[in-house]
Amino acid sequence: MRFSASILSPILGVLCTLCCVGGAQAAPRFPPPLGLPSVLHPADNPPTPAKIALGRKLFMDRRLSHNNTFSCAMCHVPEQGFTSNELGTAIGVEGQTVRRNSPTILNVAFVRQLFHDGREFSLETQAWGPLLASNEMANPSVGYVIERIRQLPDYRGLFEQAFGGRKADMQTVGAALAVYQRTLVSGNSRFDRWHYGKDRNALSAEEKAGWAVFSGKGGCTACHAVGPKHALFADGKFHNTGIGYARSMGLKTRYQVELGGGARTEVGHEMLDSFEQSLPDVGRYEVTLDPADRWAYRTPTLRNVALTAPYMHDGSFATLEDVVAFYDQGGIDNPDKDPRLHPLGLSAAEKSALVAFLKALTGDNVAALARDARRAAPVVGRWSGRDPASVYSGRH
């Protein structure tokens, strides 16, 4: 059986770092996919096949939620660009609403400040946020999660094998999930083959025109950075576009709602508020307490953006056409709006070309990564062991 280099290179790049010593080291032997830099791995959490397999299993396991129904993959669906195409904002256990859209975790290895507000700095610690959030996986404590994993018979010996005899604990759970997520690297898009690989036929004439808008009149590269050797299509910074402001201030907002069978309709926020009020959200200010950070959110990558609708931190735009129209109008005015945003005056042809260009940013191995995620053996039936809360209370 033969595999293409574009599929193997992220995994090989992970495995070859085992030979690195001292500090976070880039994989030196196997180049990353065209258009992306090498993945950096923490010195205290080098990747191994055992860690990757364990992290994949944890990622797909619904038993890690308090009521055995919810996994990481329920919000980051492998077949949906590792996000959720059906939901503007995520839904946790028992249908509880989460304030923000599920960001894709494709290429999350390159994100230095995690979540839309940048409140976490490491994949090793990030996972504990959703595991413990009452409206996500709803576990009551770190110890509760660890005790549950230790009781599950199909995890017996897996942590010890992956971590040199060490059992499941707060660090090893986070480390395994982090190592797996760093394998979700996707590049070698048609844009990469055209821009970096110099394949003049990789893009259509319209897509090339879209690149001209993206890098020129549209000013998109000011935040969605493209470098001389690689492109993350994100600057790692936080910007106020006005969307968070509009929602917080109760300004008129309209949303696309799917009715079923592919049919959609548009409704005003007042109709949705009758079902559930919007939760307060002032963005990065919640992390820094700096008024200048009100309603600012992290720039998302545009890689694989055609696969990761709906868009923006609140999932308020259903299509790329909606996103382009929003930026063409210059965002929504407010005292802290990013000064980079201003009306662009794009023609209909320029907007169409820009959307066509964005669709050329899809990596060539996304389907392979989704299939790899499903290698985690499904758990049939419900775990019938003792509840972790009763382990030390004498109850059986």
How many domains would you count in the coordinates?
2
What distance lies between the first and last C-alpha atoms, to the nearest angstrom?
A: 51 Å
Rg, Å, rounded: 22 Å
Mean pLDDT: 88
Q: Helix segment count?
A: 15
SSE-based structural type: mainly alpha
Shape: globular
Largest sheet: 2 strands, antiparallel
Strand order of the largest sheet: 1-2
Say what the CATH topology of the largest domain is: Cytochrome Bc1 Complex, Chain D, domain 2
- Point out poorly predicted stretches: 1-29
Using the coordinates above, name the CATH class of the largest domain: Mainly Alpha
Written as H for each helix and E for each strand, in order along the chain, the element string is: HEEHHHHHHHHEHEEHHEHHH
Write the layout of secondary structure elements.
Blueprint (H helix, E strand, L loop, with lengths): L4 H11 L9 E2 L13 E2 L7 H12 L62 H4 L1 H5 L9 H10 L6 H5 L7 H12 L8 H6 L9 H11 L22 E2 L3 H6 L5 E7 L2 E6 H5 L11 H4 L8 E2 L21 H9 L19 H11 L7 H8 L23
Antiparallel strand pairs: 1-2, 3-6, 4-5
Helix pairs in contact: 2-7, 9-14, 13-14
